[in-house]
Amino acid sequence: MISTLPSSANEPLIFLRFRPAWAYIDGVREFCRFFCQATYRQEDIAERARVVLQETLENAVKYSTPGQLSELELEVHADKDSFRISITSRPDPQHLKTLKEELSHLTRLDPEAAYVAAFYRAANEPDAPARLGLARMRFEARFELHLDEQADGRVCITATGKP
Amino acid sequence: MSHISKIESPQLPSFTLSITPPSSVAMGGTIAIADPGLVLGGCFRRMHEAALADGLSELSVDVRQLTFVNSSAIRLFVDWSSWVANAGAKGYLLRFRTDRRITWQRTSFAVLQSLGGKAIALDAE
């Protein structure tokens, strides 16, 4: 029987490239959820991956720069000790600035405190965007987030967690 | 006829809303659409206003079958919790029935309870 778990986290379990369209999110999320569930045979990691995929894909689709160069790359890397989901996109500059500020703010707090703070902010700013997604990934999905700006103008958000 | 019985369920393929007058609501399915506030926000607001108009002391909202939501949908519950917390003496107790095995419910409703204070109750199974 062939193991479903790659021998190294450097070898991607999944690699997908697609146009940043909302219509793809449900399908990609559930496809990846299935892969995670089948690989680890644990419902917990599959659910956590589902949350990360939903939130990162939504952000990437909502804020991608329109045009022919616009595409998303999704990679899922997994081994027995680590689990990593990366989304590379070409966001509009204003969103990139907001994203960097938000991540910087979040990582100053532990995941639970950051999630609670995000709820209070949303409650106090009823007409503003919710901005719960990043904090949710850290607290609910137990993934840490890292942003990498690439030389070609693309941005990679990587979520890393333990299986 | 109570105000809450007049509320129509939104037409959304993956989401169900069932209202049982005088004071019970059940939600099921998933909410992962682009703008839940635009599609469902008005309905949540109408349920809140109907609960006030009907003079309910308590409204039960069963979300145990609502298996997955995006963070924009969690915002709907944040707003509802804020409305009921700010309603003061004329308000009602908003009682959420949740399932601890569903991750988003376990993590998010505990925070909602702290946000809404005494206006929010949780029955977690």
Taking all Cα atoms into account, the compactness measure Rg of chain B is 13 Å
The first-level CATH class of chain A is given as: Alpha Beta
CATH topology of chain A: Heat Shock Protein 90
SS strand fraction of chain B:
25-35%
Q: In percent terms, what proportion of residues of chain A is strand?
A: 15-25%
Low-confidence stretches of chain A: none
SSE string of chain B: EEHEHEHE
By CATH, the architecture of chain A is named 2-Layer Sandwich
Structural class determined from secondary elements of chain A = alpha+beta
Tertiary shape of chain B: globular
Mean pLDDT of chain B: 95
Q: State the helicity of chain A in percent bands.
A: 40-55%
Average pLDDT metric of chain A: 90
Distance between the termini of chain A: 22 Å
**Oligomer class:** heterodimer
The total strand number of chain A stands at 5
Helix proportion of chain B: 25-40%
CATH superfamily caption of chain A? Histidine kinase-like ATPase, C-terminal domain
Kindly provide the radius of gyration of chain A, computed on alpha-carbon positions and rounded to a whole number of angstroms: 16 Å
Descriptive overview:
The complex is a heterodimer of chains A (163) and B (125). With 163 residues, chain A is α+β, with helices and mostly antiparallel strands. Chain A has a single domain, classed as Heat Shock Protein 90, CATH 3.30.565.10. In chain A, 44% of the residues lie in helices and 21% in strands. Chain A has helices at residues 25-40, 43-63, 93-106, 111-124, 133-139, and strands at residues 12-18, 72-78, 83-89, 144-149, 155-161. In chain A, strands 1-2-3-5-4 form a 5-stranded antiparallel sheet, covered by helices on one side. In chain A, a hairpin with a 4-residue loop joins strand 2 and strand 3 (83-89). The two termini of chain A are 22 Å apart. The mean pLDDT of chain A is 90. In chain B, helix 2 (71-86) packs parallel to helix 3. Chain B starts with 14 loop residues before the first strand and ends with a strand. In chain B, strand 4 (93-98), helix 3 and strand 5 (120-124) form a beta-alpha-beta unit. Chain B is built from 3 helices and 5 strands; from the N terminus they run ββαβαβαβ. Chain B has helices spanning 36-53, 71-86, 103-116; strands at 15-20, 24-31, 58-69, 93-98, 120-124. Chain B has 125 residues and is α/β, with parallel strands linked by helices. In chain B, strands 1-2-3-4-5 form a 5-stranded mixed sheet, covered by helices on one side. Chain B has a single domain, classed as STAS domain (Transcription Regulator spoIIAA), CATH 3.30.750. Classes of the chains: A alpha+beta (163), B alpha/beta (125). The interface between A and B is medium-sized, with 26 and 20 residues.
